[in-house]
Amino acid sequence: MDAIKAEALEKRFATTVALDKVSFTIDQGELFGFIGPDGGGKTTLFRILVSLLTPDAGRAQVLGFDVVRDYRALRLRVGYMAGRFSLYPDLSVEENLTFFASVFGTTVEREYAQIEPIYVQLEPFRNRHAGALSGGMKQKLALCCALVHRPDVLFLDEPTTGVDAVSRREFWDLLGVLKQGGLTTVVSTPYMDEATRCDRVALMHRGKLLGLDAPSGIIAAFDRPLLGVHAAQRYKALLALRKYEHAHSAYPFGDVLHYTDARTDLPAEAIGADLKRFLDASGFSDASVEPLTPTVEDSFIARTESDSGSRTPDPGRLQ
Amino acid sequence: MSDLAIQVKDLTRRFGDFIAVDRISFEVKEGEVFGFLGANGAGKTTAIRMLIGLLQPTGGTARVAGYDVATQAEQVKRSIGYMSQRFSLYEDLTPRENIRLYGGIYGLTREQIRTRTAQMLDRLGISSVADTAVRSLPLGWRQKLAFSVALVHQPRIVFLDEPTSGVDPITRRQFWELIYDAAANGTTVLVTTHYMDEAEYCDRISIMVAGRIAAMGAPMQLKRDSQVASIDELFVQLARPDGPTRPTRPSSPSGEGSR
Question: Exposed, middle or buried: residue B201 (CB in 10 Å: 0-12, 13-18, 19+)?
Fold first, then answer.
């Protein structure tokens, strides 16, 4: 049985289409990511799946329960961590946890095995008010509270937003540990680099799924040679690349520029040689060009470019 | 006038027994893009609140745009722009109304506001939605508008606190082009981010760990010195030297040290 099955889910708020016929299935035991920027529909989707919101059209089942009809049974079996910190800031770490356990008719002691890998990191702060924790620690406490009734499916809506790069890694390490225990986990995130931590991901933008696959599959579907350009004058080189007659796209990625060519029939080496000549002639003789493996972020950019709903001029893409 | 936009010397802030910012020193040159990085709870927000004149230091000095943050906080506030991810624009107002509001607060004349409004709407390519409530604009547009509004009074320095959080990858990059543009026109930019690729876009960065500046320099230089492939890697090394579970600060009896 699928852990989750969604068929043509739709939701509107006034004139905004938050979800536009979204369909997918998620397997038991899968660590599944919805990746995309704010406003893409991730939170709306999660709220529907945990029965806090009803869809306008389409249907969804979680663990075989219909999210509208069977909401009472469903709620006992899912864990949900909302995007906003929603614990009691003036209760201590321990009090929050005890409270959530008691709401579900259980105790922290009885469920300790489930939360142990996370709780050991919180233990030094056991008596601190939840509101006084650092961002990363707040997220770990919220995760504990969502797990304390031993749910079969865990929904985490943007657990790592606003969290520093190190705490984000630690959080994903914890999700890996939970996966070992067989828990089905559905996570949303705006950080594209987190996609590789998931078994499968759905790229989500403006209420639609732009793709759904294993991260390696998303990357393999990138259909042009990708070249990396290093140049000391990075920003000037970027502006120059955009003016190159064969350019398809040019974007900064950290300290390197990612370039794709409009000529789809040339191999990467030939494009690279042409590009190097162009850069030399444009005064960037120090520039180096190398073929690159695309990332999920490259794929997301390529797919949002072709989903041309954008009304702002897009400087990365030649019109 | 000095060509240093920000001069910080031994800046310190204590909350009771807890030292949130512990004798940090750095300088930012005019027109520089300075990345101010650090883990959650490392003291970044406390440091920035002192630099923008919202929080008194308990030790050390800081001059921003030539003014002392402890004794000339009002002059500091007038000389800087500030934008955060959480709140910057009035969402019930339109882009045009937001620009007029902030222009008025900073004492621009009607004529100046008119000129600036036309320039900004044109630069951002949003003239078509100039009279639509900000609430109904995509997040990426709102953030770009918020940045422009932070520059409405042409401040010498602009502070950007996680300006690109949650923004889509294309808009995130467009946002950085606005930053480069502002810097090329002489505006100094101090920016925080959790996207480590963005750290590489800065002229120089500092990384705060437990109230101190643990590393500072040009991204390329820092990577070379520490023999790491990316700033992300350096960040991990510095922020968790003893592994992942080390508490980063002592339990404080009250919630005072929270950020």
Answer: buried
Q: Which of A192, A213, A234 is the last residue of a domain?
A: A213
Q: Are residues A41 and A164 in the same domain?
A: yes
Tens digit of each residue's pLDDT (9 = 90 or more) over B37-83: 998 889 999 999 999 999 999 999 999 999 999 999 999 999 999 99
Q: Do residue A165 and residue B180 have CB atoms under 8 angstroms apart?
A: no
Nearest to A203 by CA among A28, A33, A23, A17: A33
Q: How many domains does chain A have?
A: 2
Contact A121/B171, CB-based, under 8 Å?
no
As a whole number of angstroms, the distance between CA A83 and CA A188 comes to: 9
For residue A146, give the nearest of A93, A67, A82, A88 by alpha carbon. Answer: A82
How many domains, in total, are found in chain B?
1
pLDDT of B222-259, one tens digit each?
999 999 999 999 999 998 766 544 344 443 333 333 33
Q: What letter would DSSP give residue B29?
A: E
Same domain, A149 and A235: no
Q: Can you give the residue range of the structural domain that contains A277?
A: 221-306
Q: How many CB pairs under 8 A join A and B?
A: 130
